[in-house]
Amino acid sequence: MRLLSLNLGRAQAVAYTDQPEGLTGIGKLPVDGPVRVAAPGPKGTGGSGLAGDAVCDLRHHGGDDQAVYAVAREDLDAWEGELGRTLPNGMFGENLTTLGLDVSGALIGERWRIGSGVVLEVTCGRIPCRTFQEHLGEKRWVKRFTLQGAPGAYLRVIEPGEIRSGDPVEILHRPDHDVTVALQFRAATIERKLLPRVLAAGEALHPEALATAREYVAKHG
To answer: Where along the chain do its domains lie?
Structure first.
C-alpha cells in the first residue's frame, strides 16, 4: 500500500461554481513533495490539511474533519473503463491517490500512517456536488457517482508531519465495528434506512454525519 500521487490544487476561476468569487480548488495536480500536513482548524474557517492546497468553498469543504481527501487509483481505473477516457491522478479533486488500499472499504475511525510520521483518521465519504460534475464534464455525474457507491474518504489529521509521493501507507488501527465509508455514504444518500447502523462508528464519524444519523433515529426510532 502506498501513496501513488500527492495532489494539490490552486484557486481557479470557473463559470460553474456558486462561490461569490467564482473560484474552486477542485483541480488538483500531482506534486512530489514533501508537503506539510496538519489540522487546518474548524470547518468554515480552516481549509485544507495540506500546505499549498486551495479550498475555496469553506461552507462544504475543508476543516479538521475533512482535512484530506483520498481516492483509490483502482477506483479511478474502473471509472476510466466505464467512461472511456483517461482520469489522471487528482482528477476527482483528491489530495491522495492511493495504490493497494481499499479506501471506500475503510472503516470509519480507521487510522493510516503515511510515510514515517503522519497519521490520518477516516471520517466519512465524499458527497458529490455540481462543482464536481462540471469539473469532470460528465452528464448526470452526481447520480452515477452516487449509485457506484465508492466515494473515497475524508480524513482528519491525528499526527502532523510531512508526506511525499511514493510514501508507504500502513493501517495502524481498525475499529471494532462494521461501518465502512461505503456504508456511511449509502446511508447519507440513497439508503437512509442504514443511518441507525452508522451510529456504531461513534465520535470518529464526521460530526455532521453523526448528527444526521442521530436525528434520523430520534425521528424514526
So the answer is: 2-177
- Give me the count of residues in the chain: 221
CATH topology of domain 2-177: M1 Pyruvate Kinase; Domain 3 (2.40.33)
Residue 15 pLDDT class (50, 70, 90 cuts): confident
What integer pLDDT is reported at residue 19 of this predicted model? 74
Residue with cell 462508528: 201
- Kind of pairing, strands 96-99 and 68-72? parallel
For the chain, give the mean pLDDT.
Answer: 96
Q: For residue 181, which amino acid is it? A: V
Where do we find the cell 466515494?
A: 151
Q: Is the pTM of this model over 0.70?
A: yes
β-bridge mates for residue 120, sequence order = 112, 157
DSSP calls for 98-166? EES--STTSBTT-EEEETTTEEEEEEEEPPP-HHHHHHHT-TTHHHHHHHHT---EEEEEEE-EEE-TT
- Is pLDDT of 121 > 80? yes
